[in-house]
Amino acid sequence: MSPLLEMRDITKTFPGVKALDHVNLEVSKGEIHAVVGENGAGKSTLMKVLSGVYPHGQYEGEIIYDGQPARFRDIRDSEDHGIIIIHQELALVPQLSIAENIFLGNERAKHGIINWHETNRRTEDLLAKVGLAEAPTTKVDGIGVGKQQLVEIAKALSKDVKLLILDEPTAALQENDSRKLLDLMLELKTQGVTSIIISHKLGEVRYVADTVTVIRDGSTVSKLNAKTGFSEDDIVRDMVGRDMTHRFPQHKRSPGKMMLEVENWNVWHPEHTERQVIKNAAFNVRAGEVVGIAGLMGSGRTELAMSIFGQSYGRRISGSVKLDGTAIDVSTVDRAIAAGISYVTEDRKSLGLVLDETIQFNTTLANLEAVSSGSILKKNEETKVAEKYREALAIRTPSVFQKTVNLSGGNQQKVVLAKWLFTEPEVLILDEPTRGIDVGAKYEIYTIINELADQGKAVVMISSEMPELLGMCDRIYVMNEGVLVGELSAAEASQERIMSLIVNE
Amino acid sequence: MNVANSEPTASATADTKSIRHYLSANLRQYGLLLALIAVMVFFQIVTDGTLLRAINVTNLLLQNSYIIIMALGMLIVIVAGHIDLSVGSVMGFVGALAAVLIVNYDINIYLAAAICLATGAAIGAAQGYWVAYWRIPSFIVTLAGMLVFRGLSLWLLEGQSVGPFPREFQIIATGFLPDIFPAGIGTSLAAFFDVRQINTLAVASGVVAAALIVWMGVRTRALNQSYGMNEEPQSIFVARTFIVAAALVFVTYKLAQFRGLPNVLLTMGVLTVIYAFLTQSTVIGRRIYALGGNVKAAKLSGIKTERLTFLAFMNMGFLAAAAGLVFAARLNTATPKAGFALELDVIAAVFIGGASMSGGVGTIIGAVVGAFLMGVLNNGMSIMGIGIDFQQMIKGLVLLAAVIFDVYNKNKQG
Ligand SMILES: Nc1ncnc2c1ncn2[C@@H]1O[C@H](COP(=O)(O)OP(=O)(O)OP(=O)(O)O)[C@@H](O)[C@H]1O
Ligand SMILES: [Mg+2]
After folding, report:
1. How far is it, in rounded angstroms, from Cα A461 to Cα A472?
2. Boundary residue ending a domain (B214, B246, B261)
3. What's the confidence (pLDDT) of residue B6?
4. Residue B8, in any domain of the structure
5. Would you place residue A172 in the very low, low, confident or very high pLDDT band (cuts 50, 70, 90)?
6. Is residue A256 one of the residues assigned to a domain?
7. For residue A327, what are the contacts with CB-CB under 8 A and spacing of at least 6?
8. Residue A168 forms part of a structural domain
9. Which of A352, B132, B317, B359 could form a disulfide with B306 if both were Cys (CB 3.0 to 4.6 A apart)?
10. Could you give the ipTM of this predicted complex?
11. Domain check: are A162 and A294 in the same one?
């Protein structure tokens, strides 16, 4: 098949960082092309070059699109050529309806007056195409992330798309939602749409991709083809540059005394005050134990964690929290931290980081006492701390004085993790700790979790990736609609058992 | 990803390239300093040297003192992600209160000053309470405050001007620090430099302050280097430090030829140092930046965001009161119009100084330099005899230009 797109020798530098170093990418017409690589390898940057976020002149190299040299001035320009990118972080306006979002900037209007009839009718068509059963007038903030992702795709389809770029579309999705989205991609392929997908979920890559380009440290290292066949291990080897025999560190754990005990935990919704979000939850974690909480999106796992962490979510919270046998006060975040609880948020950008500030600033933020004396900051001490965690977590950055907004998604996640590790908690609650993180870095994070457990810390791990829970946890609680519906030991847990617990409720 | 080579390169071309690179990445800070210098040079020339005459330099400092004092508080409020529109009115109200207490009721001036400062802090606290704990937008709360306190000062003064103040009170704003050095040194210095008189204290403190700045700069740089965070090229560091130190010595030398160091300069200098330290080197300062940068992340990091917001406004009220005392003492009377529209100058100074409307960004030094820039513009244009109409327009355009520059710079860095 003839190539639809060729990117030749693309080089892009940021102050102090060479993000792309002579990258080549060739995408054939009508295929699904996966771009994979470690965090910070340059995948998102490459797509931003392609879609005109970094216009012609801000990079070196050549783009041949549809047989013509392309020099896009901005996103608008590339969209006019049929290249539509859906970014790592969604760009929908939550207060607007699905239809309004789809036609935002592209309104169905005559003389500036919107034709709502046509807007809604066309939206219905598009929603049918992407298989989303929602009314066009539904507000976007009322539907889940999985559906929002479909709305983004519908929006792309409304624009006459030739080349669809999806940057980690399934990072925040549950398995069945992901599957739906991938099937939609396959469906679009039959209609002649070419797609580029970036993902850290290699199983999905294998499922949809015809071709895989692997990028490492800003350069293309290999191109794998489905026809000639490749395995997940092949991708991993090319990504990290060595063979990885295990996805999870092999480790024996020996849980000790009871650390965290939560009983009778009840939480009501902050706005819809009559709705009970968490019902009579009870769970416990021992020292040196890793306990997972499985459940579907919206089952209340994050709400459970956040309500325990200084009542950061919800109202009319009741119940008891005991640490090491004594009741503790977790009514505010600083008290929860002081008591020894830390919570790594799932949403690193809006809840985890001060993006305009440096890695160092963010690393020490939750424990400034430890790097100050008498309220005066010891900046050298701070730098030492930040450096220590940069090394321990292998955060890829030229220096700890880099603003976190400039880091790749996975490295941002590591900074959030660093921040909470530095509070030296007794109990660490991790909410989707490996979302958007590459296989190598995942392994590193699992190793860190194991080390924490070895030090006698209690770890709670909330995750939508079941293999991860199964691979890491000593026990798994299953949550559904605000209720902890079951508890499985590592020996008895399996994907099927977990799903059946969820469905049976 | 490759980490670009940060080893010093021998070749001269690479060196100038890295200097240019560094300058363009930090254009904002240097740009502000350069703009101030450029504006001063410009007015020095077009006013035939009047701008930098000893008496005018002294005046310039006195005229801008209350703006700078308030800019310190405003910077913190803006970094915290808010705004305070009431400071002009609060300043006027406190001046009126001082006049009524001291002139009408004959209350001891120190007691009166204490009452005034406490009142300012209480006003700030009251406004901060609504903003912090009720989440009422600060724009609304302080807009209300602006009207309320404007009205209150009218009522308090019954629409009249009240004055004059006793001498000891005027000293606050118009007094000068006595020269503690023997007069002989001054006269021989004056003879040496061939000028009419020299205030040794002024010159000495200028030299000491300059030496301190050089010493601290070198020390920080050495420390930074030992931690591998040596961004600033040597030549720029030397040039910047030299300019700042020289400017300090120059200004104090000018002051020394008139009546020496004004009391307000001391107040201003001390406050600036305190607040610069507070924002850059203390836990509370750090937390204010976090609060302004991302409230939710700050909250989840255990920061008591409400209390910090409350304190930021209380502090602003306190500083507005301090400015009110200085202003009243300088005019030697309290008028119902005192401080009218002054909040705009203060806010403009902070934004010219590089603060961001969305919070989390800005420095004390930037705000002070921003205030000076506005001050020099005001003063220079007045000397040139430019009417108030054009002055307003030019100041407005300067503010706009500074902010456009910010945004442009940010976009360019991507
Ligand atoms: N605006 C920027 N300024 C400075 N450095 C940047 C900027 N944008 C990206 N980088 C750097 O470029 C490199 C590539 O980043 P990019 O976001 O493309 O990685 P990625 O492959 O998408 O990673 P992830 O899988 O974590 O999303 C990273 O080292 C990142 O820190
Ligand atoms: Mg990315």
Report:
1. 9
2. B261
3. 40
4. no
5. confident
6. yes
7. A320, A321
8. yes
9. B132
10. 0.84
11. no
Tell how far the Cα of A26 is from the centroid of ligand 1, in angstroms. 21
Which residues form the domain of A158?
3-240
8 A C-beta contact, residue A200 and residue A445: no
pLDDT bucket at A155, cuts 50 / 70 / 90: confident
Write out pLDDT tens, residues A383-431: 999 999 999 888 888 889 889 998 888 889 899 999 999 999 999 999 9
For residue B276, what are its two tokens?
Answer: 């610069």
Distance CA B92, CA A139 (A): 48
Contacts of B231 in chain A (CB under 8 A): 401
My answer on whether omega of the bond before B262 falls inside 30° of 0, hence cis, is: no
Chain A CB contacts of B284 below 8 Å: 375
User: Hey, how many other C-beta atoms are within 10 angstroms of the C-beta on A324?
Assistant: 16
Q: Chain A window 412-431: which residues touch B at a Cβ cutoff of 8 Å? A: 419
**Structural domain of B291:** 29-155+163-175+264-413
Is the pLDDT reported for residue B16 higher than 80?
no
User: For chain A, what is the largest distance between any 2 Cα atoms, rounded to a whole number of angstroms?
Assistant: 72
Compute how many other C-beta atoms are within 10 angstroms of the C-beta atom of residue B389. Answer: 8
**A358 backbone dihedrals φ, ψ, rounded to 5°:** -80, 170
Residues for chain B: how many in total?
414
According to DSSP, residue A369 is labeled G
- Say if residue A334 is in the same domain as residue A268: yes
Q: How far is CA A331 from each of CA A309, A421, A423, B387, rounded to the nearest angstrom?
A: 8, 21, 18, 60
Could you give the CA distance from residue A221 to residue A239 in angstroms, rounded to a whole number? 8
Own/partner long-range contacts of A324-327 (Cβ < 8 Å, ≥24 apart): A324/A257, A324/A258, A324/A259, A324/A426, A325/A258
- Cα A453 to Cα A71, A253, A306, A394, distances in angstroms: 52, 8, 22, 20
Pick from A423, A440, A472: which residue ends a domain? Answer: A423
Q: Do A410 and A369 form a contact (C-beta atoms < 8 A)? A: no
User: Strand A17-28 and strand B2-3: pairing?
Assistant: antiparallel
DSSP-assigned beta bridge partners for residue A281: A265
Alpha helices in A370-494 (DSSP H): 379-392, 409-421, 439-454, 466-472
pTM of the model: 0.85
Q: Which of residues 282-311 of A touch B (CB under 8 A)?
A: 309-310
**Ion ligand 2 — residues with CB under 5 Å?**
A 44, 409
* Same domain? A331 vs A268: yes
Give the phi and the psi of residue B355 in degrees, each rounded to 5. -70, 155
Asked, for residue A141, whether it belongs to a domain, the answer is yes
Residue B352 lies in a domain: yes
Strands A427-431 and A458-462: parallel
Domain count, chain B: 2
Which of B229, B245, B261 is at the close of a domain? B261
Task: Give B73's strand partners.
Answer: none
